[in-house]
TrEMBL record:
Residues annotated as domain N-acetyltransferase: 84-174
Domain of life: Bacteria
Organism: Candidatus Rothia avicola
UniProt-listed Pfam families: Acetyltransf_1 (PF00583)
GO MF terms, alphabetically ordered: acyltransferase activity, transferring groups other than amino-acyl groups
Record protein name field: GNAT family N-acetyltransferase
Length: 203
């Protein structure tokens, strides 16, 4: 556990017992992020797939080498107090405001989409979301650093049209592969594309 963003948030590991809390926040972030970008019913479609998300969480968190963290607001933080004044606040451990997870890939669905998969064991940034109320505070960068080490070769998938995400990852050395694919199921009609750093992708 540790303070990030000048003491404004606390980052703590995600455990196997955190499935409900993780998926609750995940669904909230998906709705906030994509209801306006994909379509207004996007979040509702994802919520209907809750059991599937719980199953995915169990698989991800049990994967050897997985790294996963929650972020929580620190009520003791003030804009002028900084880290020295941030100690002692009572954290609401039931109310995370962000999360991130990375794991060795490729995932099963990546082997079925027609693009050459990355080499087995290549680290994937699987999830990185924060609530909209935290945007611009540095929390996303702190969670990114918690699950991906500096200059660690890695890849990720992002929803085409989410320029905020694409630019965020671009500043951290990721390049867009430029080969979008159609999403299926609850993700349709979105399209997704792969970004990578420190890798030579198969052709």
């Amino acid at each position: 556990m540790g303070f990030v963003a000048d003491g404004r948030y606390v980052v703590a590991p995600v455990g196997t017992e955190d499935a409900e809390k993780y998926v609750d926040l995940q669904l909230r972030c998906l709705a906030e992020t994509y209801n306006g970008l994909v379509d207004p019913a996007f979040g509702a479609r994802q919520a209907a797939e809750r059991d599937g998300w719980l199953g995915e969480f169990a698989e991800n968190i049990a994967t050897p080498g997985a790294r996963a963290f929650f972020a929580y607001e620190n009520p003791a933080w003030t804009p002028t107090g900084g880290l020295s004044c941030a100690v002692g606040g009572e954290i609401d451990w039931d109310a995370p405001v962000g999360f991130a997870l990375s794991r060795p890939g490729p995932l099963a669905w990546e082997l079925e989409i027609g693009l050459p998969p990355v080499d087995g064991g290549t680290r994937e940034l699987t999830h990185l979301y924060t609530l909209a109320s935290t945007h611009g505070t540095g929390l996303g960068a702190a969670l990114f650093d918690a699950v991906l080490y500096p200059d660690e070769p890695a890849y990720l998938w992002y929803i085409v049209g989410n320029e905020r995400a694409r630019e965020f990852y671009g500043r951290r050395g990721f390049k867009d592969e430029g080969l979008p694919i159609d999403c299926g199921g609850a993700w349709a009609p979105a399209r997704t594309a792969r970004m990578y750093r420190g890798l030579t992708l198969p052709s």
